[in-house]
Design a protein that fits this description.
Blueprint: H1 8-20, E1 26-30, H2 37-49, H3 62-68, E2 75-78, H4 97-107, E3 117-122, H5 129-140, E4 146-152, H6 160-163, E5 167-170, H7 176-187, H8 191-200, H9 205-213, H10 215-231, H11 236-252, H12 254-275, H13 288-297, H14 300-318, H15 323-333, H16 340-345
Helix pairs in contact: 1-2, 2-3, 4-5, 7-8, 8-9, 9-10, 10-12, 11-12, 11-15, 12-13, 12-14, 14-15
């Protein structure tokens, strides 16, 4: 049984290829973080090696269980590591050429147990130049009985010569009702919590599942929203203090800061939706009144400018600009929203 939630057409296409024996040597799963790419890749690895045949992946046999737990000798997962190849920016996680070369060495041998060796490359859009070129050689001359599965958020960051040698599937975000139902039925989430998470995850169910299993995920989300709200006040000292903290964090962990700015971007999109009279489409349904207050204080142009300023900061950081300068500029660009006490005194 395929465990991935949603994406029925993709599952049907892969299952049909399995039945007909027309598997590609390489696949590319493209979609946002937490949308289900890894789950689908693991399911495909199980289906290729499961002994149940007609019912593959059964999810119950020893092969399926070991693949799910990452303990099968014929299934390899390559993940992002720290700075690689000597030219990675500080705090950046990438896939390096040594990781790809080790993969090439391993797939040069026949599978130990099953009919296929499967390699899942998570974050394939963040390979170093050397890693990408090395992978391309493997794709040009793929070893027999080996399937490579590349997972990527940004397809444009991959070499076109790599994407052209893969069968591509695009995983799209899921609607809140489908996510809410899955959280309740499969993961036992209370209905109110399931409803909240189904909106906050913006269609990426993996994040919602993680939040059901670990309460600190939602707590951390709330902390990041509070940082945004504090940055929206008129106190520049507080804004610059936050910018300094984010810049320092960026030097150690770029991904966490990028996710925080993405979350801020989602918040301001919610403000825009509220301003446009579409409260049913917002993600932060537990903060509707705050969003309504923001929308009432600002014009469409001001909200749009806030969104553009965050997008500009993300581009600057991606382009290796000075992080403190880029974040200071962002703090100056964000509009000021008076809190309730300031309104009263005014």
């Amino acid at each position: 049984m395929w465990q991935v939630i949603g994406h029925e057409r993709i599952v049907q296409a892969l299952a049909r290829s399995l039945r007909e024996g027309h598997m590609a040597h390489a696949y590319l799963f493209v979609g946002p973080e937490h949308v289900g790419k890894m789950t689908l890749a693991v399911n495909l690895a199980q289906a290729l090696n499961c002994g149940a045949q007609e019912k593959a992946p059964c999810g119950e046999c020893s092969v399926c269980r070991r693949i799910a737990s990452g303990k099968h000798p014929d299934v390899m997962v390559i993940r992002l590591s720290g700075p690689v190849d000597g030219d990675s920016p500080a705090g950046a996680k990438m896939i390096g050429v040594d990781q790809i070369r080790e993969m090439e060495r391993i797939i040069g041998f026949k599978a130990y147990e099953g009919p296929y060796r499967v390699v899942i490359i998570e974050g394939a859009d963040r390979m170093s130049e050397g890693a990408a070129n090395s992978l391309l050689k493997t794709l040009e001359e793929p070893p027999p009985d080996t399937v490579l599965i590349l997972l990527a958020v940004d397809e444009s960051a991959l070499l076109s010569t790599i994407t052209s040698r893969c069968r591509k599937f695009e995983l799209r975000t899921l609607p809140p009702p489908e996510i809410e139902r899955a959280l309740i039925e499969r993961y036992g989430a209370p209905p109110e919590r399931a409803r909240l998470l189904s909106h906050l995850c913006r269609g990426c169910i993996g994040w919602a599942i993680e939040a059901v299993r670990d309460e600190t995920v939602l707590e951390e989300y709330g902390t990041r929203i509070e940082d945004l709200l504090s940055a929206s006040g008129s106190d520049l000292t507080r804004r610059f203090k936050l910018a300094a903290a984010l810049a320092e964090r960026f030097g150690r962990d770029r991904e966490t800061v990028r996710r925080q700015l993405d979350l801020w971007l989602d918040w301001w999109r919610d403000v825009m939706l509220m301003k446009g009279g579409c409260p049913e489409s917002i993600a932060n349904i537990d903060r509707e009144e705050t969003l309504r207050r923001y929308a009432g204080c600002l014009s469409f142009a001001e909200i749009g400018a806030a969104i553009k300023s965050i997008q500009a900061a993300l581009r600057e950081l991606e382009g290796n600009a000075n992080p403190r300068l880029a974040l200071d500029v962002l703090m100056l660009a964000l509009p000021s929203i008076p809190d309730e006490s300031e309104k009263i005194h005014a």
